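Summary for the lay section of the report: proteins are chains of building blocks that fold into shapes. Here we show the chain for Glycerophosphoryl diester phosphodiesterase membrane domain-containing protein and then a coded description of the shape we predicted for it.
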Amino acid sequence: MRVDGETGIVPLRAMTAGEVLDAAVALLRQRALPLLTLSLVLAAAEQLLLGRLRDAAGLRPPFYYWGVGPENVSWVPVLATGFATEAFIIAVLGGYAGAAAGPALLGRHVRHRELWQRSRPAATLLIALTMAALTFGAAIAGFVGVIFVYGLAGLATVILTIDRTANPFTALGRSVGRSARHGMRGLLVRLMGYLTWLAIRLALGSGWVFAAERLTPVSGTEWWLYWAVPIAWGLANAVAYAALACMDAVLLLDIRIRTEGLDISVGRARSLGRDTEAVLVAR
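The coded shape description reads as follows.
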C-alpha cells in the first residue's frame, strides 16, 4: 500500500548540516533491517580481507598502525585498501538508501523488497568498484586525494537511484557537479558526516578493544584480543557505513531542494494531483 502524505521522515525543505545527520539516522531506523544486514555482511568481508593483509604486513592488534617506523611502509597499501573498501561499501549501500530516500521524503510507504528492485544493483556495483579503484589510487598517491574522491564523487550511487540517471558515468559526473555547488557544501557536509561517524566508530571499537585487553592477562592468552578487535571494528563500521549511505541520500535531496527547487516541484505536483515520484527523476 502506498500513501502519499504531506510530510515524510526527511524534511521537504533546506536543512542544516545537523538536520541532514538527524534525517539520515531517521532513514536508517526506517530501513534498518535491509541496510544493517547488508552492511554487516560487507563489513565482515572487509575485516577478513584486511586481517589477511595486516598479518602479511606484520601489523598486530589492538592498534595496527601505532608505532610503525618510517622505514616500514608496508602499512601504506593496507590502509589504502581500507579506504577503498570503505568507499565500496558506502557506495553499495547508497544504492539502496537512495531508493529509500524518495519515499521517505514524500511520505510514502514502500516495502523493503520493492526498494531492492529500484536499487539498480548492476550499475551500483560498477560505480562502487570505480569508487574503490579511485580511492585506492588516491590513497597510494598520498592520501590527500582521498578527501576529494570521497567528497566529490561519493554521491554517485544515490544519484543513480534517486535521479534515475541513464548510466553510471552520468551519475559520477553529476555527483562532482552537485557536490561542488554552494562553495563545496556537498563535499564539506560529507566530510563532516564522515568525521562524526569516525569519532563514534573509535568510541565503539576502542571500548571493546580495551575490554578484550583487560581479559588477556586473566585468560593467559591473546585469543580474546585477536578476535575482539576485528569483531568490534566490524560492528562499529557496519552501523557507520549504513548511516553514511543514508546521509548521502538525504544530502542529495537537500542539494536539489537548495539548487533546483525540488520542494516547489513536489508541492506543485501535489496541488495538481500528479505523480510526485516522477518529480524526483532529474532531467
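Put simply, here is one thing we learned. The longest helix spans residues 181-219.
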